[in-house]
Design brief:
The structure holds two protein chains of two kinds.
Chain A (H helix, E strand, L loop, with lengths): L2 E7 L8 E7 L8 H14 L22 E2 L2 E2 L21 E5 L8 E3 L2 E2 L2 H8 L22 H11 L6 H5 L6 H12 L8 H14 L10 H5 L7 H16 L1
Parallel strand pairs in A: 1-5
Antiparallel strand pairs in A: 1-2, 3-4, 3-5, 6-7
Helix pairs in contact in A: 2-6, 3-5, 5-6, 5-8, 6-8
Chain B lengths: L15 H8 L5 H4 L3 E5 L3 H13 L2 E5 L17 E2 L11 H11 L6 H21 L24 E2 L5 H18 L3 E4 L2 E9 L2 E9 L5 E5 L2 E4 L20 H8 L4 E2 L4 E7 L22 E5 L2 H8 L13 E2 L1 H5 L9 H16 L8 E4 L1 H14 L7 H27 L8 E10 L2 E2 L12 E3 L17 H21 L13 H18 L7 H16 L2 E2 L1 H21 L11 H25 L8 E2 L17 H4 L1 E6 L8 E6 L14
Parallel strand pairs in B: 1-2, 1-9, 2-5, 9-17, 18-19
Antiparallel strand pairs in B: 3-4, 6-7, 7-8, 10-16, 10-20, 11-15, 12-13, 12-14, 14-15, 20-21
Classes of the chains: A alpha+beta, B alpha/beta.
């Protein structure tokens, strides 16, 4: 395949960025999208130009490092995958592809296509845990029976990889899907109940402080989420938040 | 006489750890506040260690190259974590887990360490459940278990096919709590470039802020390296792209011995290579072998027809298929350990029975499991005359609930539906059992420098069983290191803060800067990846699943030539004082080019077949085991620990003799 790429280049958070055109040839359907960028970067390096910077690591859809807004969609045109799992067979010879960083005030650009998602970290620091001593003296695991359905539902929420596609997909750049997935995991398990009130208040407050927008129930986040995290989590977080606010 | 002191405690095996803990020195909680610990790498081992050390009261600084600890490659582990809980009542015990692990490691691990691992394994599950890790449950609300390659009991705990992810998020949440309390200072997007020693002790590190390029000095009373393995020396592996050996290797250059570098686990169930552009290989959980049957066609003409697309695998009848694992190893069948399954796949493909275009793939088939589960489901749902379609549908639903995400992943990559046509798999480099040599305390040969998880060598021998890496990472981090490091730190309660404006830090920083400058000043003929790929090809072809003297000698020579060329001609674009992933890669590949040579040297020295590594000169000649790997306990029952002496060819070998008092060394037979 021969392709035209329009790639966002920006040297750091404080510089102005712009789209730059590149043409690339010899792309095969079996290549992943990131491998296609590897090919481009190899060309650029050989020509003495600076390669395009993008986040990536595991390249098997689980670490959540890769991002990219591809033709306007987070992680590109396919559903339920990350960019590293997107294959070039989804594109056609002669296509023009727009490649941009995830856009949100709370995700400043580090360089080119790489953004800073540490706002997500701070939301989790605020309360994304159960306060248990890591001493090795906890009670036997089977002393906390959990209904299979609850464990499965908690697992579905816990599947969130924190890639930020939900934020990038949202017209308000809201982090509700991410935050609610984290809140839900603990809300569904007996171990998380004791601190539930403090947790949801602290995490939601931190989310607001980071500059994420509000949820207007558009649902784009759920559609673009590579792990299929459900909007029900947002409803659950809202209920938890309301409950906590009334208590608080 | 070896200069290596393993510090294995006296006494009966089952009491060693308890006795040891009863006797070591403790640090008063008020004094812990005056002690700093650096943890490099924040995956399962580093993350759990950092959280626990902070919980105990030490001041912890963590370093990771990603933007978050939750991206560590531990997150990609799929299948599960072992623990000797005996919840299933199928006869499991600490001893049995210990026995399986030592046997699975082909008797090249340390008895005392492995027993301790088995002993604390149950605690890990308790700990993780308390943290809210959503392990799979049975309908009664209790934890579910499954079995894994190489063992005959169900002792593997799992969270769908994402166990590593959930365990890592558990450790990460424990870290978050400590970050929130101010006990952990997290340095993300930072890379350790050197270890700083003061009076022979590890007292800090030199790190680079990967965003600004700034070189930083960080001091501490002890340094914990939990930076993972070095599988990326092969370029193509199942490791994350950024996984590297830098922290361990730089410590090695400062005096930490590197043990058994040639021990690499080749994982049998990976998605085959599709072309030259490939950047990494994808592993699919070994748990698939619980239900998948592995086969290739019996006849070469069928192989040919499949490769050219004239025949579909589903068109071959049962007796036209060679279920070679079930044929060769009837006792374990498809659940033989990873090395056996990998070698058997390579043997069939080398003999011309590989089923993909390049002849490097075998089938992993779920058709019979789908039928079996479908019939069972029909029975339990009260359907007496289900149609074939209904059975298939219900069977597929059961398989989906067990392995759904893996099947989805396969379909995305290969563009074929694995419910309808068998998966294609091939072995790939996965986990490295070698690493920094550590004593029973997990301390390297540098006082105050510790190594945990995949970065050390002690627990897995020449091979490792499925679901044992997660167990070791968390055992080291949650339950072992927090005790053993206290014994060392108890001597530091009056030391005070370690200053960083000393000649030792000056010198280390200067060396780091010189090295970076040298990397940037290459003639610019070839990219970093060009060298990495070349190194990878040498490693896979000559130091891979099967090795011989001639090729290992060639590999040593070729890597040394490649390294020389790299330092003269590599091209690193961009600048030093900014985000520059090519510069990061260049530093890492420079280390791989040294480690690769030591790897080959170690493999050459070890003239025996054991665990994951098959030495062509060492094969069983007769009897039931004819053609299988031949271990040589008389000459090689030791840990090879290499001391840095400049060039890898000058590295000096030290041997730690392995003593087996509780297990009789036997030929591993899975027949």
């Amino acid at each position: 395949m021969n392709l035209t790429l329009k790639i966002w280049r920006q040297s750091d958070a404080n510089s102005k960025g712009k789209l730059v055109d590149y043409s690339i040839s010899g792309i095969e359907g079996d290549m992943s999208f990131l491998e296609m960028l590897d090919v481009l970067n190899e060309d650029l390096i050989n020509k003495g130009e600076e390669p395009v910077v993008f986040d990536h690591d595991c390249r098997e859809g689980i670490c959540g490092a890769c991002s990219l807004q591809i033709n306007g969609e987070p992680h590109g045109p396919d559903r339920l995958i990350t960019t590293c799992q997107l294959h070039m067979r989804k594109f056609n010879d002669g296509d023009t592809i727009y490649i941009e960083p995830f856009r949100a005030k709370a995700f400043p650009v580090v360089k080119d296509l790489m953004v800073d998602r540490s706002s997500f970290e701070r939301i989790q620091h605020a309360g994304g845990y159960i306060s248990v001593n890591t001493s090795g003296n906890t009670q036997d695991a089977n002393a906390i029976p959990i209904r299979k359905e609850d464990a499965d539902e908690a697992m579905d929420a816990a599947t969130c990889i924190g890639c930020g596609a939900c934020v990038a997909a949202c017209k308000n750049a809201s982090a509700m899907l991410f935050t609610s997935a984290k809140v839900s995991q603990f809300a569904l398990l007996p171990q998380g109940q004791v601190e539930a009130t403090e947790r949801v208040l602290a995490m939601v407050n931190q989310m607001d402080e980071e500059g994420f927008g509000n949820c207007t129930n558009t649902g784009a986040c759920e559609i673009e989420c590579p792990k299929g995290i459900s909007l029900e989590n947002i409803a659950r977080m809202n209920r938890e938040y309301l409950k906590a606010s009334m208590k608080g | 006489m070896s200069i290596l002191d393993s510090k294995i405690p006296e006494g009966p095996l089952a009491d060693k750890w308890t006795n040891y803990k009863n006797k070591i020195n403790l640090v008063n909680p008020a004094n812990k506040r005056n002690i700093d610990v650096i943890v490099v790498g924040t995956g399962l081992a580093g993350g759990s260690a950092a959280a626990t050390l902070a919980e105990l009261g030490y001041n912890v600084k963590t370093f990771c190259y990603s933007d978050s600890p939750r991206r560590a490659h531990s997150i990609a582990a799929q299948g599960g974590i072992n623990a000797a809980k005996n919840y299933q009542g199928d006869g499991d015990s600490d001893y049995r887990l210990f026995y399986d692990t030592v046997k699975g490691g082909d008797y090249r691990s340390r008895e005392a360490n492995v027993y301790r691992l088995a002993e604390v394994s149950g605690n890990i599950i308790d700990q993780c459940v308390a943290q809210g890790v959503p392990f799979a449950r049975e309908y009664g609300g209790l934890l579910d278990n499954r079995s894994f390659g190489g063992v005959l009991v169900s002792r593997t705990f799992y969270a769908k096919g994402q166990t590593g992810q959930q365990l890592l998020l558990g450790a990460y949440s424990a870290m978050n709590r400590q970050i929130n309390r101010g006990k952990i200072q997290a340095f993300n997007r930072h890379e350790m470039l050197d270890l700083v020693k003061v009076d022979g002790k590890a007292r800090g590190i030199i790190a680079r802020d990967l965003v600004t390029g700034e070189i930083e000095r960080h001091s501490a009373h002890a340094v914990v390296l939990a930076s993972g393995g070095y599988g990326n020396v092969f370029f193509l592996s199942t490791n994350a792209m950024g996984s590297n050996v830098m922290a361990a290797w730089r410590a090695h250059r400062r005096g930490a011995f590197f043990a058994n570098p040639c021990y690499t686990q080749i994982h049998p169930t990976c998605i085959p290579v599709s072309g030259d552009h490939q950047s990494k290989l994808t592993l699919m959980s070994e748990s698939l072998r619980n239900d998948g049957r592995i086969w290739v066609p019996k006849r070469k003409e069928d192989v040919e027809a499949i490769r050219t697309g004239k025949l579909k695998p589903t068109q071959l009848s049962e007796d036209e298929r060679d279920y070679y694992l079930e044929r060769r190893y009837p006792a374990f069948g498809n659940l033989v350990p990873r090395d056996v399954a990998s070698r058997a796949a390579k043997e069939r493909c080398d003999a011309g029975f590989g089923v993909n275009k390049t002849g490097e793939a075998v089938y992993l088939d779920f058709a019979s499991a789908i039928q079996r589960y479908g019939k069972e489901k029909a029975m339990t749902s009260g359907m007496h005359n289900p149609s074939k379609e209904e059975i298939t549908k219900m069977g597929e639903e059961v398989i989906e609930s067990k392995y759904g995400n893996l099947f989805q992943m396969y379909e995305k990559i290969v563009d074929e539906n694995p419910y309808k046509s068998p998966m294609m798999i091939y072995p790939a480099v996965h986990y490295t059992m070698g690493g920094l040599w550590v004593d029973y305390n997990l301390q390297t040969t540098i006082p105050g420098c510790y190594a945990a998880g995949e970065a050390n060598f002690s627990d897995h021998g020449a091979n490792r069983l499925g679901a044992s890496a997660l167990m070791q990472g968390l055992a080291d981090g949650y339950f072992v290191l927090p005790y053993t490091i206290g014994d060392y730190l108890s001597h530091d309660i009056r030391t005070g803060k370690i200053p960083t404006d000393t000649p030792e830090f000056d010198q280390a920083e200067k060396e780091v800067k010189d090295r970076i400058e040298k990397l940037m000043s290459g003639s610019g003929e070839h990219s970093v990846d060009y060298y990495h790929k070349k190194l990878g090809k040498i490693m896979w072809n000559k130091c891979g699943m099967s090795r011989n003297e001639k090729e290992l000698k060639e590999a040593i020579e070729e890597i040394s030539v490649l390294r020389e060329d790299f330092w003269k001609n590599v091209k690193v674009p961009g600048t030093v004082n900014s985000m520059n992933p090519e510069l990061e890669k260049a530093g890492r590949v420079a280390d791989f080019l040294e480690l690769g040579e030591l790897f080959a040297k170690d493999a050459l020295n070890r003239n025996e077949s054991c665990g994951g590594h098959f030495r062509e000169e060492s094969v069983e000649q007769s009897g039931e085991q004819k053609g299988e790997a031949l271990r040589d306990d008389k000459n090689f029952k030791y840990v090879a620990a290499w001391e840095y002496k400049g060039e890898p060819k000058d590295a000096e070998l030290h041997k730690e003799d392995l003593v087996f008092e509780n297990i009789e060394l036997k030929t591993r037979s899975y027949k």
